[in-house]
Amino acid sequence: MPNCRLFDTHTHFDVAEFDPDRAELAAQAKAVGVEALILIGFLAERFPDLLQTHLELQQLAVAPRSYLAPGLHPIYIEQHRSAHLLQLEQLLQSQNCVAVGEIGLDTFLPQHKQPESLQQQQHYFAAQMELARQYDKPILLHIRKAHGEALKLLKQQQFQLGGIAHAFSGGIEEAKAFIKLGFKIGITGQITNPNAKKLRSVVQQVGAEHLVLETDCPDMTPLCCQISTQQRTRNTPVNLPYVLHGLAETLSIPEAELAEVLWKNSLDALHLST
Question: Alpha helix (H) ranges present in 95-253?
């Protein structure tokens, strides 16, 4: 597997699972070509840990470059409060954040399909889009079983700063709709699963120029990295080359060539120059 320049556009590398060996994993990730990663927010109470991990990674001698993307995740809608939006804004004001995320809509669980829950999710999604617009940031989308509703809200809000549709699970027409709105499509280790036929079809039809890589660690472990079928194997940024490998196989593109396209896509999606 060639050592390519890779950008992990979606990690939860700040969570407690990584506290014992984060520095070691960061060095290993850098060694296999992971030059940059994003630390994604999901709960206001975790913002201090998110920032602490960001500072910790910056101080390590060998580690990927760290970027911050704080946000309020739709799956935790019951825990969000209006004050948390103020905390998010304070972080956007005080830190050099690259995006707002992960934000969006999720109706996978029965309780989140209820009108009241969905209305609350839509409220926080719209409010965070407004903050992203105010601070000129792209957004990192979490959308599960709600692609149509999310697209409708993006259009209603006339959001034009783009971003990434993280861990994409929709169909080809939905992928094209997000791309038309300025979003890249986030590809996880799911691409390494031979049974992920819908995802493979989507990436083949949209092409490499609209894709970015992510691990979504500690979840979404590539199939080849899973130790047990009985219990979850922790995913880490070190596994990102396996996502590249699975995507390169799916697209029939050499890994080194694909990696350069994906690196450029990541910078474009995040409005970064280098």
Answer: 115-134, 147-157, 172-180, 197-206, 240-251
CA gap 273, 264 in Å, rounded = 9
Give the Cβ contact number of residue 245 at 10 Å.
18
Residue 67's nearest CA partner among 27, 34, 113, 106 is 34
For residue 170, pLDDT over 70 is answered with: yes
Q: How many CB atoms lie within 10 A of CB 89?
A: 17
Summarised one tens digit per residue, pLDDT across range 117-163 is 899 999 999 999 999 999 999 999 999 999 999 999 999 999 999 99
- Write down the residue that tokens 């939860």 correspond to: 12
Using CA atoms, how far apart are residues 131 and 145, in angstroms rounded to an integer?
25
* pLDDT band (50, 70, 90) for residue 230: low
C-beta of residue 1 within 8 angstroms of C-beta of residue 243: no
Q: Which two tokens stand for residue 115?
A: 């009108």
Q: Quick check: 229 pLDDT over 80? A: no
0.90 surpassed by pTM: yes
CA distances from 122 to 103, 142, 224 (A): 10, 12, 37
**Cα 94 to Cα 98: distance, rounded to the nearest angstrom:** 12
Q: Which residues contact 44 (CB under 8 A, 6 or more apart)?
A: 72, 80, 81, 83, 84, 87, 88
Neighbouring residues of 237: CB distance < 8 A, sequence distance ≥ 6: 8, 11, 13, 25, 26, 29, 34, 37, 64, 215, 217
Does residue 69 contact residue 39 with C-beta atoms inside 8 Å? yes
Q: CA dist 166 to 84, 105, 188, 262, Å?
A: 22, 12, 8, 14
Q: Which residue has 């979850």 as its token pair?
A: 232
